[in-house]
Sequence to fold (285 residues):
Amino acid sequence: MDSMFQGTFVQSNRIIYTASPFAKANLLYLQEAGELRALKPHVNSRAGLRSFLFFLVTAGSGSLVYEGQTWRLAPGDCAFIDCRKAYSQSSSEDDLWSLKWIHFYGSSMGGIYEKYVQRGGGPVILGGDGAAFGDLLTDLLALAGSEDYIRDMRINEKITCLLTRIMEQSWHPENRSQPAKRQSLQYVKSYLEEHYKEHITLDRLAGQFYVNKFYLARTFKEQFGVTILGHLDQIRVTHAKRLLRFSNLTVEAIGREVGIPEPGYFSRVFKKVEGVAPGEYRRMW
Fold:
């Protein structure tokens, strides 16, 4: 339930939330949600928490120390960190801050955060969509204090929405001022989707688009988060799944149809992408 706390350093409204066993096993779940206003300069330091923290500065200013770096934060700035690592946050002395925050977790969060970092996401989002983030944090605080009988599901939905916005704000900030590069690489992606049945190599693509193959491979992965050949495998497997479900073609014929004529290799690629062999996938449906 809501708890207003008037301390020496902060005034806070927070909820310590205990998710259901179902939520802890299957969902992204809330551990704590709240908002605070600093009354005096203070430092909050923690380490080794099985938790992820997202907070938004709604007024004032302060700093975050994380992984050996210090960031100065102003209104509208956000932080998204893995609390298993040491961190500290502190309000400035002459411009005391106010924050909204959540601590949350889930069995998939380690992988989600790792992907976030791989794609260029950092612990701080400067000048992001503060209003949208603030609304989501307010909604989560309200849900945590509600009697909604499916609130764990609604909390999972809101946290997922929050993570989606974080990815939109933070992935590939270095590419935002380079629309020409994005357009050319989208053309490469479209080419793969149209010519997936053909024998495609990195050398062929480099020649097709008159670029260095190492530059092409590196930049494609930076933009789309997957290698060129990995994306080609995904396209081929997607088409193979459709044929497995809605045609009477043999597995071998389907492999040839999607550009992988060697049966054993087709089965390995399909299982790598989908997690099951082609024949097993067909039986499932």
Q: What stands out?
A: The longest helix spans residues 151-170. Residues 64 and 71 are 5 Å apart (CA to CA). DSSP finds eleven helices and eleven strands in the chain.
